[in-house]
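FAQ: What does the model actually see?

It sees only this:
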Amino acid sequence: MTLLNLNMIFSLLTSFLIAFLAVPKLIYFAEKLRLLDDGGDRASHKGATPFFGGIAIFTGIICSLLFWAEIENIQYILVSILIVFILGLIDDLREITAFKKLIGQIIATLALIFLGDLHIDSMHGVLGVYDLPVWIGSLFTIFVVIVITNGFNLIDGIDGLAGGFGLISSFSFGVIALTMGQSDMAIIAFTLTGALLGFLKYNFYPARIFMGDTGSLVVGMTLSILAINCIKHGLVSENYNLPDIGPFLAISFLSIPLFDSLRVFIVRSLKGNGPLSAGRDHIHHALLDLDYGHKYTSLILCAFSVFLILGSYFLLEYNVNVSIAVLAGVSYLILFIPFYILKAKSKE
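And it is asked to produce this:
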């Protein structure tokens, strides 16, 4: 077993143990200080539940990276994650406006672009576009981070769902980075996987703690970093030479959160509502209304995510536009079914 593989395993185990041991302490202090989510009219849970699980996820990630990663190579990535962590923590404590959160995410992304030199410089043939000018590539990188980060924030609606999606996505990005010999990105990916594993022990139904905006922003930003790296480098190794497949891989690893968020934005805009306005129109709300409950709704959607990722393997050799179109079509078919069943039941 190579040193790289050992570092992956140890990074995952370290973040897992730290998150796993930190969550009970957070639950204790949150309950003692009454830092609880009491739910509301749109909430899908009952009772008061601590919502600072993101602190355990962040702590697991940072401590593991300090142990196992080459810090000089990822120092600005850590800065970006730290910025969104502070942003989410403030939001969980006193609730800041969406505009301020957006500004914070942009600042974190600018640190990635101009200090970490991590940005999208090509579309790799998506819609016929290849190389991007620096300023357009920078704007597109900001857009990608905002979409992914807020997509995970929006999907964090029921027990274990955002954590489950994050775990599946981070593991998938980790496998690609490991295949390509990208040690830094692989360690970041598997560190997030481990932290989410430790957190899900307490977040899966019935949840004893939520990740809060602190967690969803940290997870979303970390996955954005992995997605940008994947888009930038594609899949090039001893067995594969697919430099232009990166956009397709990134979309497939994040398919359900991305396509569901896009569907919700379009539906709300057509109804004249703000795309970021509150509502119960996500895919997990539809499954809850079909009486699947938190546990089976999360399991069903995570199973669909795994199905789409495994299925994407058979589309690697096709043109990137064809692959994305097929993935989008299958994803929206999956997302459409629960709403169709609900509509049919309402007519009955």
